[in-house]
Design goal:
Length: 267
Amino acid sequence: MLPGYFPWYPMAGERQVFAEYPYYNGGNGYNPYNRIPEADFSLRISSGCDFVTNIKKKEENLYEGRSDGISIVGGNIVQTENSCFLNYLPLELSRIGEKQYLEELNQNWQQILAEIENVFGIDSDELRNKKLIMASKDMGRNFSNNFFAEFDDYILFSENYLSSAFYITYLLHQSGKESEIGDQFISAVLSADTVSADEILEDMFSRETEYQQFFNEMGEKDSSPAISDRLKELKQQLGAETLLRHMIQYLLDPELKTDQDFFDKYS
């Protein structure tokens, strides 16, 4: 497994290979945002196992194409002619046939695209036009934020982590904004049973209440107003769907630096 964000091939300049996240509940892992300026590649691959890559085969062992990063995944994989997925892992098939499995993967991906657009308010047109390459669970099992990576022409992912929640956390970790709203949002969206504005916001509110109760029991009272109290006021004014979209826009907007900037803009 050679992910395109890892400099196993020439990447000009000094590169941060491993990243730590002091925000959004911490974590660390390989830096999935490493990219190169889009370039033409010509690559000869000799392998004793089946493999898939994002650049196209031109002739025996020769692959050529244009991309901002090359990924190669090999081993116990099956290449497909599917319109979305370049491959799948046969070990994922349990009491299900290949055709049904790919149909369910497609349905799941279409549902994810709908949630990204309709719940989080993010345009998913570019995602729809990209092929998906499936890697093993090892891609994200041992580190945080290593289970999904979006490139100009494809998406590299681990099947268990293909969800709108993980896509949103991938975007927010990339923006790197220290935010209590962001901390609470990521905890809530990753634990929500359904991807809906109401459920995510209610989970955020209940989590902060639990934290406040815990600190009170420890004798560490916080005199500052609870974030959830201010978000509840905005929810009454704007509605859950609009508030959630504004939150995502704030967390991805480099111009708004702090949670106070968010409240100043939307209150």
